[in-house]
Specification:
The complex is a heterodimer of chains A (251) and B (221).
Chain A lengths: L1 H8 L1 H33 L13 H28 L2 H33 L7 H22 L3 H33 L14 H33 L4 H13 L3
Helix pairs in contact in A: 2-7, 3-4, 3-5, 3-6, 3-7, 4-5, 4-6, 4-7, 5-6
Chain B lengths: L1 H15 L1 H21 L4 H24 L4 H6 L1 H7 L4 H30 L4 H29 L5 H28 L5 H28 L4
The chains are: A mainly alpha (251), B mainly alpha (221).
């Protein structure tokens, strides 16, 4: 366990491992996304209540799922970083944050598009929508703090702590928003009774969720490689690497 | 003894720059004034939006007053002395925040019912406003202090502080304004008080300790 952590905790080794993982994960991610998208958009029968419009669920639900999943991944990395001081974990947080922000934006955006024909409005202040919006703002705040601190070492610790503060607060915010919503009023536009999903409709959804998770790992691996190169730019192995690449491409 | 001295010192510095302590109150008054001018002067409408308006005003005034919390100590080197002190850092921070609340939070709470009167709040609602502010403003200050510690010495500290901290203020705002709103409609408000008290205890337990951790990292240096 310790040896494993220390081995992969070294930026140099992780740089090459990340490259390998990217190559292994890229193809499965593409396959799952293809299965999910083609299955969901073309083959699944249309919904009785919502017609063709329901197909946006194959983008919307997985993005919302990812937005939360990525935040929890960041929280786990923050604990690993603060407890064992493993630099790669901090870089993983840096690499994940913009992806998470994009996915929560995508969830809100597709939700609005879905809401217009189904609920008759782009936006309602429903508990779930509101907490998704707050999650989006948390991501943005995190990115803002990270870009404001110029000292990398300090910035890593501060942003790891901010992620943890966010994790403690997210459930409180979520439940207070639910409580606020139920206190004030029921949803003005009643949501359609959600019929239990048919298996043929669910499988493409699973495909999308797995595919997008793998996609997140791929992109995060690419971003973390850039991050490692940026931070370790002065070290010997990066110099060697650059020299080798330059020789290969005859620059 | 050292704790009492710190408290006394904080109050003394506040007394020496008394006009600065009045800024948050002015901001609060101005924010509240904007709403009748922009929404409507109808007493019914005003009394309906009053809980939210007063609470948002307090929230922003608190946030703006947080700016100077650690700034002067950091510039004068007093913060380093606190870090090196044999006293527990989190307790020192708690004392500092207590003084900050006495100097800047309490006046806001005293002014709030007056502004509530301008917005046609009922008597019960005024009472609920004071109680919910007494429970809520310490939470706002504790969470705000966490943001201040994270952004100390950064460029654009004020704006960054707002971006970081406002999402965490949401639960306090919800329970605080809904307490006032419920009291305005003669409903029971014990539930909201309970939640606010719970949040206060939770933040009292964890926040000073977190702030101490953040200050030790030394974002400021």
């Amino acid at each position: 366990m310790w040896q494993f952590l220390h081995k992969y905790g070294s930026p140099k080794i992780f740089y090459f491992t990340a490259g390998r993982w990217f190559r292994w994960l890229a193809l499965p991610s593409l396959c799952f996304l293809l299965i999910g998208l083609v299955g969901g958009l073309a083959f699944v029968p249309e919904d009785y209540y919502q017609g063709e419009g329901f197909r946006i669920i194959y983008i919307h639900a997985p993005s919302a799922f990812l937005a939360m999943g990525i935040y929890s991944m960041m929280a786990i990395s923050a604990v690993i970083f603060l407890v064992w001081r493993i630099k790669v974990a901090a870089m993983w947080i840096c690499a994940s944050a913009p992806i998470g922000a994009w996915f929560s934006f995508l969830a809100l955006f597709t939700g609005a598009i879905w809401g217009k024909p189904m609920w008759g409005t782009w936006w309602i202040w429903d508990a779930r929508l509101t907490s998704a919006l707050i999650l989006f703002f948390l991501y943005l705040g995190f990115i803002a703090l990270q870009s404001a601190i110029t000292d990398r070492q300090v910035g890593d610790k501060a942003s790891a702590i901010l992620v943890l503060i966010g994790v403690v607060n997210l459930p409180i915010i979520h439940y207070s928003v639910i409580w606020w919503n139920t206190l004030h009023q029921g949803p003005t536009i009643s949501r359609l009774q959600k019929p239990a999903m048919d298996p043929s409709m669910v499988y493409p959804l699973y495909g999308m969720i797995i595919g997008l998770f793998l996609f997140y790992f791929c992109i995060a691996m690419l971003r973390i490689r850039c991050e490692i190169l940026k931070r370790e730019g002065r070290s010997r192995w990066v110099e060697d690497l650059v020299r080798e690449k330059m020789a290969r491409y005859r620059l | 003894m050292a704790l009492y001295k710190l408290f006394h010192y904080e109050l003394l510095t506040a007394k020496r720059s008394l006009h600065e302590c009045l800024y948050p109150i002015m901001v609060f008054g101005l924010i509240v004034t904007l709403f009748p001018l922009s929404v409507s002067t109808d007493p019914k409408t005003l009394s309906m939006i009053a809980p939210g308006v007063v609470w948002v005003g307090v929230l922003l005034a608190c946030l703006l007053s947080m700016d100077r919390l650690f700034r002067e100590d950091w510039e004068s080197g007093f913060l380093d002395r606190m870090l090196l002190s044999s006293q527990s850092l989190s307790v020192l921070i708690l004392i500092k925040l207590l003084a900050h609340w006495v100097v800047l939070g309490l006046p806001l709470i005293l002014v709030a019912p007056l502004l509530g009167l301008f917005l046609h709040l009922t008597y019960q609602a005024e009472l609920a406003l004071v109680v919910s502010l007494l429970l809520g403003t310490p939470i706002l200050m504790l969470i705000g202090a966490m943001g201040v510690a994270l952004t100390l010495g950064l460029r654009n500290q004020g704006l960054l502080l707002m971006i970081l901290v406002i999402p965490f203020f949401i639960p306090v705002l919800i329970f605080g304004s809904s307490a006032v709103g419920s009291a305005n409609q003669q409903l029971s408000v014990t539930g909201q008080y309970g939640f606010l008290a719970g949040l206060l205890l939770l933040s009292l337990c964890f926040v000073p300790w977190t702030i101490a951790g953040i200050l030790r990292i030394g974002v400021a240096n």
